[in-house]
Specification:
Number of helices: 12
Order of helices and strands: HHEEHHHHHHHHHH
Oligomer: single chain
Structural class: mainly alpha
Strand order of the largest sheet: 1-2
Length: 297
């Protein structure tokens, strides 16, 4: 069963290179190949969801190694991500029939799929960070796919939020590791007891909230959605923003458990974000921008 996790994470990344090579010879064959990969990813996610819980560690990477686990919560997220890719894979060939650089899009789409699933299956915050950054950098290509002035500006905003948020998140992980000596998510509740983790939590919140589209770092969503291709917009809205919420859940349910002040902070940010997103959606005259504002809300 351990091999299933490796296939789910690294399989789409290897398939991305194959899809690029196949696409140089046959576009229709590439489209079928990409859909077969995401269909296999969805089936693997179902096998993991109904299989035994396991912990897989790949040692030797920056001292920490990469660690994955398959509890029910993570498997649900991974299955939803794979299902979203499956559905967008069905509509992508028709939608991209008039686009250039389709090979590039599918390459980064599959890499992003592997990275997104890895974020949801990660058992430690170092693994979360590594694949969170891969996901953010690769999905930039979706936003800038058209290569028009508006797309490049929106892509620049998206990349700036991703890079700055990622560096602040990394700072938070440094602070957390210094205080607790561990980044294993399952160990955080005990390791964080009685410690002042607010500086680490706030830094991590900035990194995750940027991806989640929370106020005041929501600025990339209304800009990126209108210019990104529709399949990419649905993935940005339906899945990639949820990786940020996944991180905020880790902070709230593992690091600062039952902390009333933290709960009030998250509630205030959430209410402001919800109201602002709904208000922006009311004034939107572009359907994809309305979707983006709804995602913020």
């Amino acid at each position: 069963m351990d091999i299933l996790i490796s296939l789910m994470v690294f399989g789409p990344m290897a398939a991305a290179i194959l899809s690029f090579i196949i696409g140089r010879k046959s576009r229709s064959l590439r489209d079928r190949f990409v859909w077969a990969v995401v269909a296999a990813e969805f089936l693997l996610s179902l096998l993991l969801a109904f299989g035994p819980e396991m912990l897989v560690k790949i040692p030797g990477i920056c001292g920490f190694g990469l660690t994955f686990t398959t509890d029910g919560f993570r498997c649900i997220y991974a299955a939803i991500a794979a299902f979203m890719w499956l559905i967008t894979g069905l509509m992508s060939p028709e939608y991209f029939s008039h686009y250039r650089n389709r090979n590039r899009y599918y390459l980064f789409q599959l890499v992003t799929l592997g990275a997104t699933v890895a974020v949801f299956l990660s058992a430690d915050l170092y693994t979360t960070f590594v694949f969170f950054e891969i996901m953010s950098l690769c999905s930039y290509v979706w936003v800038a796919q058209d290569e028009k002035a508006g797309s490049l500006r929106a892509g620049g905003t998206y990349l700036a939020v991703a890079v700055i948020g990622g560096m602040v998140l990394l700072m938070g992980l440094f602070l957390l590791y210094r205080e607790t000596g561990t980044l294993m998510i399952a160990e955080l509740a005990d390791a964080c007891a009685g410690k002042n983790l607010w500086p680490a939590a706030l830094c991590m919140f900035v990194g995750f909230a940027g991806k989640a589209g929370a106020f005041p770092i929501h600025i990339w969503l209304p800009k990126a959605h209108p210019v990104a291709p529709a399949p990419a917009s649905s993935l940005l809205s339906g899945i990639l923003t949820k990786t940020g919420i996944f991180g905020i859940l880790i902070i709230s349910c593992r690091m600062l458990v039952h902390n009333e002040l933290w709960g009030a902070f998250v509630l205030i940010i959430g209410v402001i974000t919800m109201f602002l997103g709904a208000l922006l959606a009311l004034f939107s005259v572009n359907f994809k921008r309305t979707l983006a504002c709804s995602s913020v809300s």
